[in-house]
Amino acid sequence: MENFSLILAIVVITALAFDFTNGFHDTANAMATTISTGALKPKVAVAMSAVLNLVGAFLSVEVANTISKGLVNENGIRPEVIFAALVGAILWNLVTWLVGLPSSSSHALMGGLIGATVASAGFGAVHGDVLVTKVLLPALAAPVVAGLAAMLATRFSYALDSKAEGKAAEKGYRAGQIASAGLVSLAHGTNDAQKTMGIITLALVAGGAIAPGSNPPTWVILSAGLAIALGTYIGGWRIIRTMGKGLTELRPQQGFAAQTSAATAILASSHLGFSLSTTHVVSGSVMGAGLGRKGGLVRWSTATRMLVAWVLTLPAAALVGAGAESVTDLGDWGTAVVAVFLVAASAAIWKVSRREVVDASNVNETEEPAGVVTTAIAAVTPPPTGAVTEGLTATIAAPVTTTEAAAPPAAV
Fold first, then answer.
1. pTM of the predicted model, to two decimals?
2. Per-residue pLDDT tens over the stretch 58-97
3. Is 271 exposed, middle or buried (0-12, 13-18, 19+ CB in 10 A)?
4. Which listed residue, of 15, 85, 175, 328, carries a Cα 20 to 30 Å from 365's Cα?
5. Is 214 exposed, middle or buried (0-12, 13-18, 19+ CB in 10 A)?
6. Residue 208 contacts residue 290 (beta carbons within 8 Å)
7. What is the spatial distance between Cα 232 and Cα 23, in angstroms, rounded to a whole number?
């Protein structure tokens, strides 16, 4: 470790800062549906998720190796390049958190890394085959697969639920939802914490602190796990609100189906070394669960905004990373300028966020307005039998007379 320079220390600290933003940015992936359905209290949910994220960080290093050994050519990459990449990833995470959009922290990191690498060493330093097979194709396939699985699981759950007692079945699904949320948290730690491990390992190789081809050292695994766990405990309440209430209205059966499908997809991809976006997977499974219930709807206006953010993540982070690399290439003072810019921009975003505070006390209070498509579908789609029964309990408590039945409905 005699080669552990000041710039390398700055890169490691910045990487852990990114890991922290990844934690609170992606808390919604594991706990939004659990919180929105009332299966767990908000603070209990994020504490449970934080612990399991830490545990998950120790389960595998396959994704870390994809980042550190596969995506870019680690020979000739300077620590300043990785610092520039992290700047692009952190700023994209903070901007999308501010507006409550569940974009991909993973793709922000990889976009920043690709942009900074291209600016430093050209397109030849990026391994295009790895980018396509282990990043882009999973990004397209994973939300679709998870969505279809969640839709089928939701329909299967409601088919079983028709033969079970309502209250007992609901309690069972809530318990199952808590267990599946824990599995998603474990999977998130296994997949996302490894990305920071990979980027720190790449920086250590670039700085000459460890040999090329090395696996992440134990202290890197521990520090990355702790950083993402702390960020998770802070809770990204704005994105939790969007994922839990803004995308669709979920019931315990749907929440259980969505989280189980997402956890299965994430764990499988981690085992195969795919640098998967857990945000894409969970968002797809939530939409699938929303469509799986008869009469269930997805707020397509929110889904469209999310899709736009997904498409922009890689190129936006790449552009910022490339710009930051161009400045750091000017020397130590250029690196200092980029560092000051990152701190100032982060502080400005945080200050703007204080104008409308979203936290554990009000995360479930406001829902996204229904869009035009959702309203039109709702007008022609019959609600599920269970929803009608629950909604009319108070109304049918007393007998309805013929006169009352014939009267036109009151305006709402």
1. 0.75
2. 877 776 676 666 677 766 678 888 899 999 999 999 999 8
3. middle
4. 175
5. middle
6. no
7. 4
